[in-house]
Specification:
Blueprint lengths: L14 E2 L6 E2 L5 E3 L2 E3 L1 H17 L22 H16 L20 H13 L8 H4 L1 H18 L5 H37 L8
Antiparallel strand pairs: 1-2, 3-4
Helix pairs in contact: 1-2, 3-5, 3-6
Amino acid sequence: MAVTCAYHKKIDAAGACVSCGKLVCEECKVTLKGKFYCNPCVEELFAGKATAPASAPPATVVVESPPAKGLTKPKAEVPAKLASKTQTTAATSENTSGQGKDAIIPDEIKGWNWGAFLMSWIWGIGNSVWIALLAMILGLIMSIILGIKGNEWAWQNKTWNSVEHFKKTQRTWTRVGVVLLIVSTLTGALAAALSVLYASGGQIQFK
C-alpha cells in the first residue's frame, strides 16, 4: 500500500518533515539545506526567526551628542529588515516549478535553451510546452522564440524535482538535438552526392 501525503491523501509521499515527522508530497515539501520540511513548519521556523530579535535586548548605537542620563536608542528598523530577508530566502528555496505564471524562475536556469531551439515542437511535447507546436507553422521563427523562452516555459508548465534535475534534463535534450543535427547534415550531404552521381549516369569525369 502506497504511503500518501498528510495534506493530500491521494498523492504519494516524497519524504517526511524533519521537524514534525509528517509525510509530504512533492507539492508540499520545502527543501532547506538538503532537508525536507512541510509548509506549516517552514512558516513557524521563519516566523520564529523574524520575531526573535524583538524580544532581544535593544542594540546600542553611538550618539555623537552627549546622551541624556546614559540612555541608548534601539534600532527599530532591524526586525523589519530581518523579516524581509527571511521571506525572500523562503521564496527562493521553494520549488515552484509547474505552477504556471505563479512559478518563480530560478536564476540558475535563465538563458538560452539549445535543446528547445534544435528540437522545437518535439522538445515542447516532452516538456509540456504546447505552444512549441507552432514551430510546425512558424518554423525557424518559433525555434528562436523557444530558444529564448524555453527554460522559463518548461519550468512553469512541468513539475521538476529540483533545479539540478531540470538542468540535467535540458542538457540531455541539447545533446540529442546536436546528434540529430549532425546526422541530418551528413544524410543531406550523402543524398546530394548520390543525386549528382545518378545524374551523371554513374560516371564522374575529372578534367
